[in-house]
Specification:
Elements: H1 2-14, E1 26-35, E2 44-53, E3 58-60, E4 63-74, E5 79-86, E6 89-91, E7 94-106, E8 117-130, E9 133-143, E10 154-164
Antiparallel strand pairs: 1-2, 1-10, 2-4, 3-4, 4-5, 5-7, 6-7, 7-8, 8-9, 9-10
């Protein structure tokens, strides 16, 4: 918990509000957590960043699709770079956000997921702490959809700090 609080304070101090952040169309999600928490042998701390362009969207029967692009790095030097979409559903101060983001994975000294192409599905619940900031909790699963000879997958959880810029 101390790490999460330090992380949020760091983000608030390093990334001050430039101009009118409410109308900028840019959100950044800074997150940290545990990569593959369900595999005792290969679980690892992770840190990531994700850009959300709220101005570039498409209305669908599922809701508002927003593009997302991001990357994370684990303590074992595994890397994942991705782009895809999310569908935020706001209810008062809470937002429920499922997302789908295909990407490229490099295992570094971490877990071998079986292929360089991986698919990340994620759910996030966030709480609006101000009109420019949210805190949240998310869970994701990364899988290669059997593109490789093996498909062990990875389950991760993260603590999120989302800020409008």
């Amino acid at each position: 918990m101390r790490l999460l609080i330090s992380f949020i304070v760091f983000c608030v101090l390093i990334f001050p509000n430039f101009g009118n952040a409410e109308n900028s169309g840019n959100k950044w999600n800074f997150y940290t957590g545990m990569f593959d928490f369900s595999d005792d042998g290969k679980k690892s701390n992770l840190f990531g960043i994700q850009h959300i362009n709220v101005d570039l969207y498409r209305e669908t029967s599922f809701g508002t699709l927003q593009p997302v692009t991001g990357a994370f790095l684990t303590a074992d030097n595994a890397k994942y770079v991705y782009t895809g979409f999310q569908i935020p559903k706001k209810n008062g101060s809470f937002t429920f956000t499922p997302s789908f983001t295909p990407g490229l994975y490099d295992e570094g000294d971490g877990k071998d997921l079986g292929h360089v192409i991986e698919f990340k599905t994620e759910i996030q619940i966030s709480y609006e702490i101000s009109n420019q900031s949210e805190i949240g909790l998310s869970y994701n699963h990364i899988s290669n959809a059997s593109l490789g000879d093996k498909n062990p997958g990875a389950n991760s959880y993260m603590f999120n700090f989302i800020k409008n810029f």
